[in-house]
Every structure is written in structure tokens, then in C-alpha cells.
Amino acid sequence: MKQKLFVRIDGIFCEHCVETITRALEAVHGIERVSIRNNVAEIAGESLPSSDVIVETIRRVGYDTDETKISEDRRVAARTVRWTEFLLIAALILLFAFVLRLVFGYNVFHAIPAVDSSLSYGMLFVTGILTSVHCISMCGAIGIFASYESGSARSIGRPLLYNAGRVISYTAVGGLAGLAGSVFSVSMTLRGVVILTAALVMFFMSLSMLGLLSFRLPRFFEIRARGKRRGAFVIGLLGGLMPCAPLQAMQIYALSTGSFIKGTLSMALFALGTVPLMLTAGAALNLAKGKAKILFGKIAAVLMVLLSLSMLVRGLSSLGIDVTGFFSPRYDGIAAVMGEDGVQTAEFDLEFDSYADIVVQKGVPARIVVHANAGKITGCNNEIVSRDFGFDVKLVPGDNIIEFLPEKEGDYVYSCWMNMIRNHIRVIDDPDYFK
After folding, report:
1. 184 phi, psi to nearest 5 deg
2. Which residues partner with 335 through β-bridges?
């Protein structure tokens, strides 16, 4: 009579991980069949080896488990998914972001250098270096996923291929943009669809990396046997299509050059500037050993969960769906002041990572004045848009005036061009409120 055991295994992040563990276990005397789903291996055979042998075999190929994660009941083995561990990692990531904001005085995720036609080629490379901090915080988890060498493998091959793919992709997109010769605008609806699609794929990928869901990328993207690593290169090539604020700012810069050569060169220099930090992160992961390497993978997966949820909110906002109001109470913000010209005006100073919540009277022409200090303008907050009121204003140093007519009561979102910064305009029908 065949025996059957279920083993929870940590460190499975791709299909090749599954293949590596399966081959190792099936080579053990007494094990006839191995099937792995949701990071739980089902091991069957007429006379299975002891738990010690199973644990040693799994650890020998670079993964982790122990006797407490082995059971004859799949549900018992699956329960070893540690939600407390997930929540702890998520809390530490959010705490780290909060400390960075407290220390630097602004949200590091929004600290994107402003890109305009005045930048020299040398400064484009420097911009890439500065932007790589944003890349690590916003897209670094994808880079770690693409760079991950399965099991006990230790090399920088995949990080190099991933970054090579990114540089080629950025450069090619820059050349095509320069060839187009003029700046084009992408509708907020299309932008929202792209962001939502990327968010959903990232969300399911991250849950799969944590072993909470069976979701694998097509095998074309996976680490393959016999040293083939094309998946890392392909994911890097797709990097040029990511809904990333600094990347899109650079693509617009390339468009403005009106030249294939200049567009190619500008994006190539920018991409090369992002390589050192991104390559270091991927190499550090693969040079790590044992549980440290597995921990890096878990941190990357949790970071991808948080990033995908943030992108999901951004995508919905681009489609005119505001979900932030369900989780935070409404507060009045700055009340507009009626002027002698019959226009109500609200003014505020631009900050790195926020605008201002504003209250205006229904049916009265409204004006927002944004006082922008040159040092506070970044590549993220430098353009204010509103789907509901139809304005799209590029901010410049000094006083920036936005005019619109609030015709219906309600709470409306206005945001930066990438929906990373969002604030509200509240329209009410109560003249006494403004007295």
C-alpha cells in the first residue's frame, strides 16, 4: 500500500524551483512520485524514507523545511503558511518607508527628478542614477524576482541578463519615441487599463511566490534547466513597458528630441544610470546563502503585494473610481475664498508628496493657485490632472493657476499625472459655509 506525505517548502519562487525539488526527491530511494502545488509537496511511494532524509534532501538543493512542516494531511501542512510572518514583513516595509519620509522630509517613492529639455546627456545619466532609488522602491521586487537563481545557485548571470534586457528595451523605446518626433498624450483610461493589468499580474505573482496561490508565469519566462536564463532577459525587455513615472517622463523627453539618434542616446544613458543599484540588489540576492536568500525572496514577494495594491488604486483612479474615500474619513481642507471678480479661489504651497484638499461652492467659477518653489517640483508632482473637471496643468516655479467650474456636489479626486499623489476637491451647496 502506497504511503503519502505532504511537505511545506520555503523558497519556491518559480517553476524551475519546482523542477529542482521534484528531481531531487524522486532520486531518493522509496519515493515514486512528487507533485508540488502552492509550495506543498505531495510525496508518494510504497516505502517512504524518514522525515530526516526528506528534510536533508530538500535543504541540500537550497530550499528549506523541517519536520514540523511534514504531515499526512495536506491541510495540516498548508497551515504552516505563516500569515504572521507576512504581516510582520509588510509592517517592517511600511515602517521603513515612514522612517525615510520622516528623515528626508518627503516620500522617497515620489522623489523623482524632473526631466525637461534643458538636461544635458551627462545629466540624463545622473538622473538615471538618482531615479534608481525610485526603481528599487517601486520596481525592485520585480527585479529581484527576475534575478532570482533557484535553490543553492549563486551567480550574477540572471541579474546581468535582466539589466541587459532593461537597457535594450529602454534604448529601443527611446529611439522609436524620438522617431515619432512629437509629444503624444495617452488617455487616462488607457493609462488606467495598463496600470490595472500590471497590478493584477504582479499581485498574483507575489501570492504565488509566497505559496498562497498556484500562479505561474508562462514557462517561457521561467528559469530553465541546463543553465538557460532567458526568462530574466525577457522580463527585462518588458521593463520598457512598465507604467513607471520616471520612465514615462523620459519617454516624453525622447519624443521631444524629434530624432531617432538623440532619442536612442538619451534613453540609453538614462537606462545605464539605473543599472548599478538595480544590479547590486539582484547580485546581493544571489550571493546570499540558505535562509538569508529565502528571506530576501519573501521580502520581495511582500513588497510586490504592497506595490501591486498601490498600483491597483492608481489604475482605478485613472478610470474615475476612487477607493481611497472608503478607508479614510472626509475632512474639509482649504475653503475657497470668494473674490471681487466673482471667482472663488483656494491657494496652497506645493509639497513633495501632496497637494491639498479643497472645498468649493457649487455653481461658482473656481480657481486653484499652486505656489510652487522650484526645489519642491519633482518628476512626480509636476503635473496636476483631474478627470472630473478636465484640467491638466504642468507646474512651473511660481504661481500656477487652475480654473474650472464645479457644477455638481460631491467629492472628486485630483492627482499627479501618475495618480501617485491624490487629493480631493469637495463641492458643496452651502454659501454660509464660506462666510
Report:
1. -115, 155
2. 359
Tens digit of each residue's pLDDT (9 = 90 or more) over 90-140: 888 788 777 766 765 555 555 555 555 555 677 778 777 766 766 665 565
pLDDT, tens digit (0-9, with 9 covering 90-100), for 55-94: 999 888 888 888 878 888 877 666 644 677 778 888 887 8
Amino acid found at 368: I
Instruction: Write down all domains in the chain, each with its CATH number in brackets.
Output: 3-78 (3.30.70.100), 83-321 (no CATH), 325-434 (2.60.40.420)
What phi and psi values does residue 101 have, to the nearest 5 degrees? -65, -40
Instruction: Spell out the residues 6+ positions from residue 310 whose beta carbon is closer than 8 angstroms to its own.
Output: none
How big is the chain, counted in residues?
435
Closest CA to 379 of 108, 109, 113, 107: 113
* Average pLDDT over the chain, rounded to an integer: 77
- Which pTM value belongs to this model? 0.60
Give the list of residues 6+ apart from residue 319 with CB closer than 8 angstroms, or none.
188, 189, 192, 193, 196
What distance, in Å, lies between the first and last C-alpha atoms of the chain? 85
Which three three-digit cell numbers place residue 144? Answer: 529581484
